[in-house]
Amino acid sequence: MLRTNTVYNTETVAHVYKALWTVEDIIRTAKSILETRPIYHKCNETIRGHVFCSFLALLLKTELERRMKFADLQCEWAQAVSRS
User: Which residues of 72-82 are buried (b: 16+ CB within 10 A; e: fewer)?
Assistant: First the structure.
């Protein structure tokens, strides 16, 4: 059961919730590839910078996957990252 206070319909909420694992997987993958774990920030600027870079990595990975799907290319993420 999902509960939300948004104005979105049930199907939209369920779809977004089911896609949450992909976001978590992308963050895990990005941390592992970039070897960014652990990072301790003390300043607001560095925290914002880290969140921005993480979000940018997520956006770039998602766009790459979208383009690969459009081009009918099937490749595991690890293979796509390791190719030169």
Answer: eeeeeeeeeee
